[in-house]
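Sequence design from tokenized structure. All designs in this work follow the same two-part layout: the structure record, then the generated sequence. An example of the structure record is given first.
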């Protein structure tokens, strides 16, 4: 982008409109409307793109109010990954008469040219306001990022109603990716890496774990999800005194290998003796809530001792628990609600309490409070 007064950089024409923004741009047509794609230095983003007045009522704005709690996290992502962060394009509207001059009059290059916008124009972000705020914060901490660029998709503003409709349309089909596939693809997060290695280097678990979806179809031959193991490993290794990535992987691998031996039904599924759907239907032990609870119990065992023979002996008592879903006296209100598995924090605590009692372990303070509340009928 270039700022100038009067002179067009690529032609001999002289403008009389005063100061202007000049962007190299691509021109396109969508739904019969002209729009432009360009790039802008990060240092200019806070100056050019403004928020609607958040004090206005929602019906008078063209975007949602800014969730300021999200901004520091995005800014940290930029600061901590200066050589490999990635941002998608911002989408914005401009409320001014713009002019576009293509480099050629015919051929494919007629869509490539110079977009000129009066400096009096107002730019409003339709999609990407949290990225915009994070860029502003990141620049205050890392000014050198200012010369880097971000893509801008720029629409011509046709009023508040149209801008509100654009916001609704841009977010209509936005779906957050499943946690499982995020764990599969996330190479920054150590716990994701530990979970991938633990699962995929195990012939047993790799064969039975769904790596893309958080939910298992009725006919799926998988017993577990990658997201379920992520939550379980996070609970298992929380605060465990092992700094080495390799050692943490070894601990998690040994732990889950021991757990697998306590559930013969899991082996029957892998050997094709019973279907995964039958086991998920009749038993509760392959569901994510139980993996999470076992991880929490395992964390206590690992904190007490890293000696494998000691905690292996304790884990053998898992087979003393009646894991049938039909045992409503044990599981209803704890792992299930109305017969359906529930993954709330309270349910995880109550499920963990059942396992701790069976293994002869003391309940944590949170688990005891959850048990007391259940007994009083408050859960």
């Amino acid at each position: 982008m270039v700022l100038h007064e009067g002179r067009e950089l690529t032609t001999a024409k002289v403008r009389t409109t005063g100061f202007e923004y000049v962007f190299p741009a691509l021109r396109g047509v969508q739904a019969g409307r002209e729009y432009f794609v360009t790039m802008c230095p990060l240092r200019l983003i806070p100056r050019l793109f403004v928020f609607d007045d958040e004090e206005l009522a929602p019906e008078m704005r063209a975007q949602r109010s800014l969730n300021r709690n999200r901004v520091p996290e995005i800014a940290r992502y930029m600061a901590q990954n200066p050589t490999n962060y990635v941002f998608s394009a911002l989408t914005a509207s401009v409320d001014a008469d713009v002019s576009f001059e293509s480099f050629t009059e015919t051929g494919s290059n007629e869509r490539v040219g110079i977009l000129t916008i009066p400096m009096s124009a107002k730019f409003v972000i339709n999609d990407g306001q949290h990225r915009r705020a994070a860029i502003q914060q990141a620049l205050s901490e890392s000014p050198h990022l200012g010369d880097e660029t971000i893509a801008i998709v720029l629409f011509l503003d046709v009023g508040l109603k149209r801008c509100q409709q654009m916001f609704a349309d841009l977010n209509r089909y936005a779906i957050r990716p499943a946690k499982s596939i995020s764990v599969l693809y996330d190479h920054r997060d150590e716990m994701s890496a530990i979970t991938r290695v633990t699962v995929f280097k195990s012939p047993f678990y790799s064969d039975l774990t769904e790596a893309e979806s958080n939910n298992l179809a009725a006919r799926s031959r998988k017993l577990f999800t990658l997201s379920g193991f992520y939550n379980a490993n996070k609970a298992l290794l929380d605060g465990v005194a092992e700094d080495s990535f390799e050692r943490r992987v070894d601990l998690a691998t040994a732990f889950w290998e021991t757990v697998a031996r306590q559930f013969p039904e899991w082996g029957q599924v892998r050997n094709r003796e019973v279907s995964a759907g039958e086991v998920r239907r009749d038993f509760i032990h392959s569901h994510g809530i139980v993996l999470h609870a076992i991880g929490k119990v395992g964390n206590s065992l690992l904190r007490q001792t890293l000696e494998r023979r000691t905690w292996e002996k304790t884990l053998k008592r898992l087979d003393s628990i009646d894991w049938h879903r039909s045992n409503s006296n044990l599981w209803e209100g704890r792992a299930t609600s109305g017969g359906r598995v529930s993954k709330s924090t309270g349910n995880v605590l109550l499920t963990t309490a059942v396992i701790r009692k069976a293994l002869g372990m003391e309940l944590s303070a949170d688990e005891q409070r959850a048990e007391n509340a259940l007994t009083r009928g408050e859960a």
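Residues 179-375 form one domain. We note this feature because it recurs in several other targets discussed in the main text.
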